[in-house]
Specification:
MetI-like, transmembrane helix, Lactose transport system permease protein LacG, mainly alpha, transport, MetI-like fold, 0% strand, flat
């Protein structure tokens, strides 16, 4: 009986293996191309590692890539920290508190999801210049921190996963509202927080447009902007750029590897309104 069940599962496992290969193949080829000489990339598809990894790596490091890496870490880390606090507290307020204009305000927040962020970018640039904050990392951190999707998702998750009885019991025991939130609510909504954390980090890490219009000093560049600076003497080194792209995806791969389980939990639980 067990063998029959195993035979029925073999096609499923084969399909999963094929899908995994299809998902990992582009990343593998990107790493492989980063180990070849730049001109060799035009001779055909490369499936095996080349001999120019060290040379390409040295080319990347000569362009202050570690500085740009650090800038991206600072921007993404601060952006995620602020975005999590805003999304969680605002979502909690909309899910568990009653106040005048609640439905209207939430409808406005949801409506902003349909507005392209580029529409507000011009006004944001002018505002930051008026405040004297252009050519700093501050505009990159703040832009999009009050994330409408984060507020919407936390409101849905808290509304479906946090019973009102837990909040009332905390109030009866004399716990203040912030104490209830941080001591009782946070442990329950951890999967949703990790989901928002991953999405905010991914958006901030890959953000190209905002640094492009806000930053003109090379020492403040983030990874997406710095890729265009990577070149060898007298030529554009595409292999080194591809290697830099591979290095830039490392934090994303690490975070998604450790947080994928919570990401799935957050997406599944937050999509069901109890």
């Amino acid at each position: 009986m067990k063998r029959i069940k195993l035979l029925h599962k073999i096609p499923i496992y084969l399909f999963m293996v094929m899908m995994s290969v299809c998902a990992l193949l582009p990343f593998y080829m990107m790493i492989v191309m980063g180990t070849h000489y730049s001109e060799d990339l035009y001779t055909g598809v490369k499936l095996f590692f080349g001999k120019y990894f060290v040379q390409n790596f040295q080319t990347v490091m000569r362009q202050n890539f570690l500085l740009y890496y650090w800038n991206s870490i600072v921007v993404a880390g601060c952006h995620v920290a602020g975005g999590l606090v805003i999304s969680a507290l605002t979502g909690y307020a909309f899910a568990k508190f009653e106040f005048r204009g609640k439905k209207f305000l939430f409808a406005v927040i949801v409506a902003t999801l349909a507005i392209p962020e580029q529409l507000g970018l011009i006004g944001y640039v002018l505002e930051m210049r008026w405040l004297g904050l252009n050519n700093t990392l501050f505009p990159l951190i703040v832009f999009g921190m009050a994330n409408a999707f984060g507020v919407f998702w936390m409101r849905q998750y808290i509304g479906s996963s946090v019973p009102d009885e837990i909040i009332e019991s905390g109030r009866v025991d004399g716990c203040r509202e912030f104490g209830i939130f941080f001591r009782l609510i946070i442990p329950i909504i951890r999967p949703a927080l990790i989901t928002i954390f991953l999405l905010l980090f991914l958006w901030s890490w890959n953000n190209y447009m905002t640094p492009l219009v806000m930053i003109s000093k090379e020492k403040l560049y983030t990874i997406p902007l710095s890729i265009a600076l990577i070149s060898s003497e007298y030529r554009t080194d595409y292999a080194a750029r591809i290697l830099a792209l591979s290095m830039g995806t490392i934090p994303i791969l690490i975070l998604f590897s450790f947080g994928s389980k919570y990401l799935i939990q957050g997406l599944v639980a937050g999509s069901v309104k109890g």
